[in-house]
Amino acid sequence: MKLINGTACAIGALLACSAAGDIVVYNDSASITESGQEFVYTFNNVPLALSGGTLTVFGLGDYSIVPPSSETMTWDMDGIATDIGFNEEAFEDPNNIDLFQNDVSQTWAVSFGDMAAITADGSFTLTLTNATAVNFFVDQPDDFLAFRLSYDAIPAPGSAGVLAAMGLAVMRRRR
Ligand SMILES: [Ca+2]
Ligand SMILES: [Ca+2]
Ligand SMILES: [Ca+2]
């Protein structure tokens, strides 16, 4: 799903709405299933970044920080930016971690340099991969993993920005 401008600003309480560019937001989510422990999202017609990005990954599942936990999630964008979650800030109560199911939410800042490199070719692929220790449990069908990426994009009339906007318009019409 793709949101632009006003919509993104309205729903993103944490987002600063800049007058300099267009805030673009990409988000999606998927259930954690027996075979679904890797989630690949590719976006095309992506406007060039004018700022660093903010990536939040959140979900519900068999994540833990209890040592020596290996119940982790790795995210990667185009092989350019990557990191591993979730740290103790991602848990509602780091001192009371459930063995099998926890709410998690962690936010990373992606540097301007990385965002510029990632968006330079007009597309990006975000991959979320659960460690093998993150189990699927039949009695936890509501387990999921989701993300939201936002950044300030160059509004470039007469150039790539317009082409990207046209692409978005086409995508929206197809819905
Ligand atoms: Ca566990
Ligand atoms: Ca790219
Ligand atoms: Ca486990």
In summary, what is this structure?
The chain has 175 residues and is of the alpha+beta class. It has helices spanning 5-11, 112-119, 160-174; strands at residues 2-4, 22-31, 38-44, 49-61, 73-77, 81-85, 102-110, 123-130, 144-153. It has one domain (2-174): Sandwich (Jelly Rolls).
Structural class: alpha+beta
What spatial order of strands do you see in the largest sheet? 1-2-9-4-7
What is the overall silhouette? globular
What small molecules does this complex bind? calcium ion
The largest sheet is:
5 strands, antiparallel
Tell me what portion of residues adopts beta-strand conformation. Answer: 35-45%
Query: What's the level 1 CATH class?
Result: Mainly Beta
What distance separates the N and C termini? 11 Å
Radius of gyration: 17 Å
Which topology does CATH recognise? Answer: Jelly Rolls
Mean pLDDT: 85
Instruction: Supply the number of structural domains.
Output: 1
SSE order in H/E notation? EHEEEEEEHEEH
The protein's oligomeric status is single chain
Share of helix, binned: 10-25%
Low-confidence stretches: 1-18
Q: How many distinct helices? A: 3
